[in-house]
Every structure is written in C-alpha cells, then in structure tokens.
Amino acid sequence: MGKRDNRVAYMNPIAMARWRGPTQSAGPTIQDYLNRPRPTWEEVKKQLEKKKKGSKALAEFEEKMNENWKKELEKSREKLLSGNESSSKKRERKKRKKKKSYGRWEKSIRSGLEI
C-alpha cells in the first residue's frame, strides 16, 4: 500500500472572494440609515415637553411616597423624643445607684481599714 496524498491545492483567498461576487449584508446599509424618516423640529419640541412633564402616574406615586415618608418620619421622631426622656431618666437612676453603692475597696478606705 502506498502513502496517502496529503497535498492540497492552493486557493488564492482574494481571487475566491472576487469569484463569489459581492456579499449580501444581513442588516440595513448606511444609505438606509441616512435615508430613514426623521421627525420635524416641532415634533422634537413636543417630545421634549412630554419628557419634562413626566407621567402622571409617576408623579402621583412620588407624592404618595413622600406623604408616607413624612408620616414615618414623624412617628420615628416621636419615638426618639419619648425614648430620650426615658433613657435620660434611666441614666440618672443608674448614677444615683452608683453613688450610693461603694465597692469593697472604697468601703475599706472610707472606714480607715486596709485590706
């Protein structure tokens, strides 16, 4: 048995591309893009005005959220204010207890005894 022939004929890629002809593009061409219909200046102005106004639903939603946020803010303020009063009273009580109660070492010094 003889060896297999592994030789491949050389094909010039440029010549092959020319032989196939012009390629068909999948999408729109540049000319299609440039020739597309464009809005008039008045239409552009109307669109800009609509964007500035925004949607009514969004405006209503934002107002509702602002109202809810204000209510929550008032509630949290009330809680903090009422909480601060009670916590300050608790601190005063703790200070009084600390002043009244002495440690073992402080007692011995006050009585003049050494440990």
TrEMBL record:
Family matches, as InterPro entries: Fam133
Composition bias, Basic residues: 90-102
Origin superkingdom: Eukaryota
Chain intervals for the UniProt region annotation (Disordered): 74-115
Family note: Belongs to the FAM133 family.
Name of this protein: Family with sequence similarity 133 member B
Organism encoding this protein: Prolemur simus (Greater bamboo lemur)
